[in-house]
Design goal:
Rossmann fold, five-stranded parallel beta sheet
């Protein structure tokens, strides 16, 4: 009888510890914003030197010289996927930046030539294409660091739970706020890209702000059903919800972002001249992963994709299929008045 009681007590203790562990892990995953309390003691988040934008222009080079001599630089690059899209890299790099900041490094992002950022014509002399789209965390270029820094370590950027997760970004306002701040400080978009996006916005919408943004995902998501990715809604379902939102709110325009020309054509047939989109930003899909499509490889297509997500982020309301690009648009945005985000499970 005593042995049975001992077993019950041990089982209760085990279940209690197990429950605490699950609660702790969920708290980390669902509330990454609390992680800032850990890394806020790091000089990069707490001192004035956290970004060169906060330093007097006359002193920037002096700060850089000091860092080249005394600080550790982590050159981080992704090696686990050759066909992943721009915003898969974006979310992964956000997490890796946090990890290496917390370890006392100045992180520098490097793109590999086999990635979607490089077309066949660009093979040969290396150029870090990440710097064509985004600022480095502390405005040091890769070339500057390789030339001047005394303490460099090359790090592989693989998946980490500090990268934003789709479900948490869409449903947890504190988590979304956290990643907006991390992105603003350490992975801001190049000014020239922002200016180009603003010019495109003005040409499309004549300075109107009463815009419904729709992000539809098709092609390889529908054909190959990649494991771990969200199941997209049908074009018909998105058109139905777009009509409902349009009739309710009387938008001036509807902006469509999609890589799939079949989805594009269905929306054009339904909404006609009320529909706006960026030309040359979709494909006639014939199979395989779109990251393998030579027409989508290269910095120009990635820039168009980035501008398209910036455009979605500026819309008043949005209807989006869950994907890395949609997550990026939510992080870029200042918040949407209304949104529909589909969750139909995962492949």
């Amino acid at each position: 009888m005593n042995k049975n009681i001992e077993k019950i007590i041990i089982l209760i203790i085990f279940l209690f510890i197990f429950t605490l562990a699950i609660f702790f892990l969920n708290n980390i995953n669902n509330n990454n914003e609390k992680y800032v309390e850990v890394i806020s003691k790091n000089r990069f988040l707490s001192e004035k030197i956290e970004t060169n934008n906060s330093i007097d222009d006359n002193n920037i080079e002096e700060y850089k010289k000091y860092d080249y001599e005394n600080k550790k630089f982590a050159i981080i690059s992704r090696s686990d996927c050759d066909v992943c899209g721009l915003f898969s890299y974006y979310s992964l790099h956000l997490g890796c930046i946090l990890i290496y900041l917390s370890q006392g490094y100045i992180p520098i992002i490097k793109t590999e030539e086999r990635s979607v950022f490089y077309s066949q014509e660009m093979k040969g002399e290396y150029k870090n294409m990440w710097e064509e789209l985004f600022n480095q965390p502390f405005n040091y270029t890769l070339d500057e660091v390789l030339k001047n820094a005394k303490h460099i370590e090359h790090k592989s950027c693989s998946w980490t739970n500090m990268a934003p997760a789709e479900g948490h970004v869409y449903s947890n306002e504190l988590t979304l706020k956290f990643y907006r701040e991390v992105s603003r400080k350490y992975m801001s978009i190049k000014n020239e890209i922002i200016e180009e996006a603003n010019n495109i916005w003005n040409k499309l919408f004549n300075n109107s702000t009463n815009i419904l943004g729709v992000l539809a995902r098709g092609t390889d998501f529908l054909e190959l059903k990649p494991g771990g990715h969200s199941i997209p809604p049908s074009a018909e379902k998105m058109i139905e919800d777009t009509k409902m939102m349009y009739e309710k709110n009387k938008y001036d325009w509807i902006y469509l972002a999609t890589e799939d020309d079949k989805i594009r054509d269905k929306f054009i047939k339904e909404f006609g001249n009320k529909l706006k989109l960026i030309q040359k930003n979709n494909i006639d899909y014939t199979g395989g992963y779109i990251g393998e499509n030579k027409n989508l490889k290269g910095i120009e297509f990635q820039k168009l994709y980035l501008i398209s997500m910036i455009t979605i982020s500026k819309c008043l309301d949005v209807i989006v299929a869950r994907c890395s690009g949609a997550m990026g648009a939510f992080i870029f945005s200042k918040g949407f008045r209304e949104n529909i985000v589909y969750f139909l499970g995962q492949f």
